[in-house]
Amino acid sequence: MTALDTELQIDRSKLKVSDEVAVQITKMNKWFGTFHVLRDIDLTVYRGERIVIAGPSGSGKSTLIRCINRLEEHQSGKIEVDGTVLSSDLKNIDKVRSEVGMCFQHFNLFPHLTILENCTLAPIWVRKTPKKEAEETAMHFLEKVRIPEQADKYPGQLSGGQQQRVAIARSLCMRPRIMLFDEPTSALDPEMIKEVLDTMIELAQEGMTMLCVTHEMGFARQVANRVIFMDQGQIVEQNEPEEFFNNPKSDRTKLFLSQILGH
Amino acid sequence: MADMHSEADLAFVRETMLAQKEPPIAEQGALKWLRENLFSSWLNAILTVLSLLLVYWVLAHTLPWLLRGVWDAGSLAECREIRDARYGDGVDAACFAVITDRWQQLLFGFYPRELYWRPILALLCFFAAIAPVLFARVPRQMLGFTVAAPFLIFLLLWGGTIWGPLTVALGFVIGWACIAFLTKPLGRLVATIAAVLLPIIFWLFLAGPLARELGNILPIGLEPVGSKDFGGFMLSFVIGVAGIILSLPLGILLALGRQSDLFLINKVSVGFIELIRGVPLIVWLFTASLLLNYFLPPGTNFDIMLRVIIMVTLFSAAYIAEVVRGGLAALPKGQYEAADALGLDYWQSMRLIILPQALKIAIPGIVSTFIGLFKDTTLVVFIGLLDPIGLSNSIRATTDWNGIYWELFLFIGIMFWIFCFSMSRYSMYLERKLTREHR
Questions:
Q1: Cβ separation B334–A108 shorter than 8 A
Q2: Where does this polypeptide localize (chain B) (predicted)?
Q3: With an 8 Å Cβ cutoff, are B335 and A126 in contact?
Q4: B50: left (phi over 0), alpha (psi -120 to 50) or beta
């Protein structure tokens, strides 16, 4: 476990989960060629939930959240996001994508655009927001992630942590109702992990529905309301973080926890 | 601090940071440059001296010939008389008089002499039109002129009534109107199909008669000049520039087509690229000049230059497509995913995210292809068009200049080099500018 655990400032009383369904996945299966990556996934995410998905590499956790905004296509079962069923209908896909924000391990900022342009691009072209208004929104979120002074720089001039915070701001500019995080801190220097996690905590406190694939168990313990453990394309165990870490039920979970928390 | 190094105590704390110092004398200035770049070892010193000797030897043989050049004579024989009188019998001396005598022909072919102002004005229009595209500092309002320029240049070069170019332009307006007014009521697919089909129908069946009628009512225009009178650098320039400008968008579309998941579009693109690229340009040019006549209905007057431009465009588009595909493949997958995740549709993500980056990577390859295309325009000599090489043959065929080679080729070479070198410099400028912006 990292030393960060004690430093993360969070007021758990602010975290609320409603009983409104945000994402509903039923009997979802996915194959890469003949390889069965995701097997019979059933998952219901309620609005305001902070879910951490953990598991060994190759367990399908990234693929699972990438199916939610259809960066990956599932082959059977049903995924319903905010009441929209994901199928090959392009209109539905674009609708879901503009409602669901995503942060990637390698940030994937657009290197040929300034930070501000990165943030205003999608609002202007997808939401048809007037440029001025989009820029105001962008500055608002850049202030929120505490880097408004970098607005006119290019991504290549920023540190990894700053880039990831810009990536979060870029997603927020689309005013998403759900945020997906695909290992947001895995490519960062240890010194920069905290600034990104702090930003994510702020989001959580504002009631954002979040699904995070991460190895930051400190974050999982303190911020998540549910931890999901996956192995071999299946959900092996899910529970509240307290129970999950202190009293894991399955042997596979115990082994995993002992390996990542053991040293 | 000296006693800090005692074996007993390995702990070390620096109390003052060291200030920067100047490097040693031998490490700066011209001396260092000479030593590092020319005489860094014995082998390199020998190679340096040998290279200097080689440069001297080449210059010693060519410079006198160039500097003694005779610029003012009416024929090769006269040239030789002047040379003999000036430098003595049989001395090496260039006879540039052929260029002072025939430069108009080398530049304009058999374009009527009193109309030379038209191609010159067309060239100026071309520069004015291309400036806002090439340089961001030029005011954006000039892009309006850029749109109108092709029609104006066409009118200036070929002449005829103004209604020809105007009806062609009208076709584009019809296409634009389809997109602008049909997208809302009928959907994007129908509007796009209409925007492609309606102008083509208009051009094929209506544009000709309409232009003729309007020409009869209001005969405004310039004296027509046929493609057979085009020649020299004007010909190379028109074919080369038209090919370059048309092949870039076509090549980009082919590259996207080759990456497409849609089976039919993918296979058509691959087939087109492989077919065009696998056959020599000269074969396509012969196809343009000879075979097309068999396929077209008898009596169709399909301008030879237009045919050549189409072939050259298709040929270079196939190469551009592969170069652009290289740029597309070099982009990390994350860029596509980030664009998708933000909800951009295919054309938006291509135009705003993928192509700006892919084209930047592909700039050197694209410009190489353009330079190649421009030089390949000299191949049209084989289908009877008088490009500079063709003209040099016909100049040599006259009794006055029979037997002159080097001077003509030198002139033609320099003209081509100026054009190709400017393209190369521009591409380097663009790359530098984009790198600076993106870092």
A1: yes
A2: Cell inner membrane; Cell membrane
A3: no
A4: alpha
pLDDT surpasses 60 at B108: yes
Q: To probe the interface with B, which of A62, A92, A97 has the most B CB atoms within 10 Å?
A: A97
pLDDT at B74 over 50: yes
Cβ-Cβ contacts under 8 Å, A121 against chain B: 342, 344, 352-353
Q: Which residues of A94-130 are buried (b: 16+ CB within 10 A; e: fewer)?
A: bbbbbbbbbbbbbbbbbbbbbbbbbbbbbbbbbeebe
**Model pLDDT for residues A46-68, shown as the tens digit of each residue:** 999 999 999 998 899 999 999 99
Q: Is B357 on the interface with A (CB under 8 A)?
A: yes
Average pLDDT across chain B, whole number: 87
**Using beta carbons and an 8 Å cutoff, which residues of A are at the interface with B?**
69, 71, 90, 94, 97-98, 100-102, 104, 106, 108-112, 121-122, 125-126, 154, 156-157, 170-171, 174
Which domains does chain A show, CATH number per domain? Answer: 20-211+222-261 (3.40.50.300)
Quote the ipTM score.
0.90
A21 CB-contact burial (10 Å; exposed 0-12 / middle 13-18 / buried 19+): middle
Chain A residue nearest residue B344, CA to CA? A126
| Among candidate residues A127, B37, B405, the one with its CA nearest the CA of residue A119 | A127
Cα–Cα distance for residue pair B210/A208, rounded to 1 Å: 63
